[in-house]
Amino acid sequence: MQASFLNNPQPWPREQGRTLCDGNSSFSYIWTHSGAKAYQTLWENPDSGFSQFWRAVAAEFHGLPGVIGGELWNEPFPGDVFGQPEMRDNHHADRVNLSPFYTNVTAAIREAVPERKNFAIAFEPTWPVGDQDTNPTSLLPSASGFEALPEEGAVYAFHWYVPPADGNLSRYLDARLADARRLRAAPFASEWNFGAWSEESAEEFFANVAQFESRGLAYTGWQYKNFQGALPHTDVNPTCTGCGSSFFYPNGTASRFTFAGMSAPFAQAVAGRVLSVEVTPLRTAKDSRRYTLTLHPTKATAPTEIIVSELWLPASNLDVKVSDAAATVRIESKLAGAKLTDGVAYPAAAKVVVNHAQSAGAAKPVRVTITAKQ
Fold it and tell me: Is the CATH code 3.40.50.720 the one for domain 2-261?
């Protein structure tokens, strides 16, 4: 019965349908003939209601506080990989399926919200690898098959999970950034495995965050909270949506490991272009820690502002040096920590404010180094 349902969906009673859903991971449904055909039908018929859905969403939500736009589809499946084997090539599927689909949906959104600054649109390439069902070790291309995005100044969204993405984060991010530059788009890592559950994973998480930060790359992580997934996370089912790391344990208390991984200083405002960010690894910094932000100054008159969490080291022990000797430095302490939910917040932070004196456009980069000692 189960196989018949997957290949020939029928209007089963709610209880039986729920039972089937609870008995299978999401990938069990995506990698079916019916599921693949459904995706292909959608990609070929964006005006069958989906475009108007996004038009209504944009019209309703644009301009609201905290809303800058929307990502049209999360992890778009390549298409009918069984009936049209050429769709197993992600580059081909990006170009043939997603490009025209995205163009049609974008046109509908712009009918409602013409100005791009009022509602940005994010476009994500196909996911996962088109032959992952037969070749689980295949790697997802780090560059899309898009020849262009539907509009200039759009957002190029991508995910990082291993597998199917390259496990070398540095190489993967560099390739994605190069692809974004080719498409003249703003890169955005809209999802990656965010959090830690042990000392070892906190060290890895800390290093991964530094990789994103050093590239000035905007990102969000999966996931904020642990929600109950349909299946337990096991070796047999490693893709349980809702299972895994987050800021919280399943009982709602804060994860100290995730907090540790997020404890590095964060440049919330930079008066120039970020060239690099370097952070002393957690385990090698028992007595002191160092954070170095290297930037190229611009004509901006606003200061560079760096937030330092008390989890990194107490603000009273901070030493700040700037390679531009004429710059001025101010440390604001006793700031309120970031509240995540009732009873859960980051400890109070300090803010390092640097007012640059070096002339705008100067060739020499400026380094801001923050050292904290126990």
Answer: no
